[in-house]
Specification:
By secondary structure, this protein is of the alpha+beta class. The chain folds into 4 domains: about 220 residues, no CATH class; about 160 residues, PAS domain (Beta-Lactamase, 2-Layer Sandwich), CATH 3.30.450.20; about 100 residues, Immunoglobulin-like (Sandwich); about 35 residues, no CATH class. The chain has 13 helices and 22 strands. The strands form 5 sheets. Strands 2-1-5-4-3 form a 5-stranded antiparallel sheet, with helices on both faces. A 5-stranded antiparallel sheet has the order 7-6-10-9-8. It has a 5-stranded mixed sheet with strand order 12-19-18-14-15, with no helix packed on it. Strand 20 and strand 21 form a beta hairpin. Helix 9 packs antiparallel against helix 10.
Length: about 550
């Protein structure tokens, strides 16, 4: 692993390690600041549960809503928050995590409308974007960051020397910062200030009023290592374990490197074209000491930099994080568990389809700017969804026929599966025999792009239901011999004797009143080719 990871970034001065690893302990170390008991907004408290025994933090003397209503300036707000952040303690606490959640919560004292906080690393890389955490880890355009440095009174020449940039930012932390408005770049404006992280002694650029979006960021070429098992390869417990192990080693190695480029690791893990994410398979990283979610490949804005332990199993009501912790601690190599959780790649998933998770602990250390060692400990996890058939090896579905549906005439059976050499449809006949039929596979299904990474995943079989005879029958879809899904159907036939399989030489039509809406009528006409009635007119 080490040789492959070395290509992730340039080697930098060892003194820069701490500034790149602020994320490790929650980034927003505010626990020592909030001693007065002033309650936050009720909505924010609901979305950011207050830990037991913790007094709600005091609001800053200037809030985001005051900026929005015009009763305070961006400068007032930025400096008020800067003063709070710079007074943080060196030890994270439950209050630290609660305050970090409030900073990201719309309607809290830290975020209202277009007024929210962004924090940058010394080189202009985003590590906290309170409005959209999916942008965290990305690099700000050089012209924008240069404009921000101008507002802080820092020469643009400092950008060429990381050590000089750090020194200049530390000096700027003693001032009041300033407004920035970069010419020719829409929206690149706001107020900038600097605070020094109490935990790491490293400067952080604090921005407010900057509605940072994709257009303000650099399109980077992400150079990936190639793990033995990629997200696409995860189909069972064995491949899941290998995938999590390699993802954890990758993340930890970057955290311990001399340049400590964990933000670039986040970019790599989030890249939809890389090896670490494919459909519903993604990586999660949680700080073991604080239960802070450092990275979430599936729902970054929903979970990232928020405390784990508030999401529940949608079927059982149990805390998913408790299950994760138990699995991670079950052995030196971690462990598996099954749970029910929203599938980001499937808008129609249900609690009937469980997810198999695997979690493992990774520990190490990195060197602070002053040369001291700081221990780090993560829980890395991932998972895959069992198929409706329960094999755990397939990603796909038998979509038609639906279970307990009625069928007649000539129709199509269809569905999709990400990877297959052969798709067969087994159908039980009226006599109880099971006959296999080969389905055509590789049809274009644009709706499977996000899940499968490609679109040639559809399968279809044209079939005459009359061949089965009237009654109940079972349809089973098999992918390379494994069951993907099954459905029980009720078949109705209209012919008799020799005409039961294919009725010929008859005509017929009828009218369905008050269909599809009251007062309308729909005319149906027998069509021999499809052995069914078709709609010919709606009045």
């Amino acid at each position: 692993m080490a040789a492959g990871i070395g290509i992730q970034g340039e080697r930098k001065n060892g003194a820069l390690v701490a500034s790149t690893l602020l994320i490790l302990s929650g980034l927003l170390v505010l626990a020592g600041v909030f001693s007065a008991a002033r309650p936050a907004l009720a909505q924010a408290q609901l979305d950011c549960p207050l830990p037991d025994g913790v007094t709600p933090p005091a609001a800053p003397p200037v809030t985001a809503s005051q900026v929005e209503d015009g009763s305070a300036s961006l400068m007032d707000f930025t400096l008020a928050v800067r003063d709070q952040f710079s007074q943080g303690t060196t030890t994270p606490s439950p209050l630290t995590l609660y305050a970090g959640c409030l900073i990201r919560q719309e309607g809290s004292v830290y975020r209202s409308g277009s007024t929210y906080l962004i924090q940058l690393r010394f080189d202009g890389r985003v590590f906290v974007h309170a409005k959209d955490m999916s942008l965290s880890g990305r690099q700000l355009r050089r012209a924008i960051y240069a404009g921000i440095l101008d507002a802080l009174g820092i020469s643009r020449a400092a950008l060429t020397d990381p050590a000089e940039t750090l020194d200049a930012l530390e000096e700027a932390a003693t001032g009041d910062g300033g407004p920035f408005d970069v010419p020719g770049i829409p929206g690149a404006s706001g107020h900038a200030a600097v605070y020094v992280s109490a935990k790491f002694g490293s400067p952080v650029v604090l921005l407010a009023g900057f509605d940072l979006n994709e257009s303000h960021l650099v399109e980077e070429d992400i150079v990936h290592i190639e793990p033995d098992v990629t997200a696409r390869d995860v189909v069972n417990r064995e491949t899941l374990k290998d995938f999590v192990t390699q993802a954890g080693e990758f993340f930890l190695a970057l955290a311990q490197q001399q340049n400590g480029d964990m933000l670039k690791a986040k970019n790599a893990l989030r890249d939809p074209n890389g090896p670490w994410r494919h459909g519903p398979v993604y990586v999660g990283v949680t700080n073991r000491d604080t239960n802070l979610i450092l990275f979430h490949g599936g729902f970054p804005d929903r979970f990232e930099l928020r405390q784990a332990g508030i999401s529940v199993d949608i079927a059982t009501g149990e805390l998913i994080f408790d299950q994760l912790i138990e699995a991670a601690n079950s052995s030196s190599e971690g462990g598996f568990w099954e749970y029910y959780f929203d599938n980001p790649a499937d808008a129609f998933d249900s609690a009937e389809v469980p997810k198999v998770g695997y979690a493992r602990i990774f520990t190490g250390s990195f060197r602070r700017r002053d040369g001291s060692e700081f221990p780090i400990s993560f829980i890395v996890n991932s998972g895959f969804y069992l198929s409706p058939g329960g094999t755990g090896d397939l990603v796909g579905a038998l979509e038609n026929p639906g279970s307990n549906s009625s069928q007649s005439g000539v129709g199509a059976l269809w569905g999709w599966v990400c990877d297959a050499a052969m798709v067969e449809i087994e159908i039980e006949t009226a006599q109880g025999a099971v006959e296999p039929y080969m389905a055509a596979y590789g049809m274009e299904r644009l709706d499977t792009q996000e899940t499968c990474g490609d679109t040639d995943n559809g399968f279809v079989l044209l079939f005459n239901w009359n061949r089965l005879g009237a009654g109940e029958h079972t349809v089973t879809a098999l992918v390379d011999g494994l069951e993907l899904g099954r459905a029980m159907v009720r078949v109705t036939t209209v012919g008799e004797g020799a005409d039961e399989e294919f009725l010929r030489g008859v005509e017929g039509e009828c009218v369905a009143e008050d269909f599809p809406y009251m007062g309308q009528s729909t005319r149906l006409e027998w069509q021999q080719e499809s052995q069914n009635f078709v709609i010919t007119d709606v009045e």
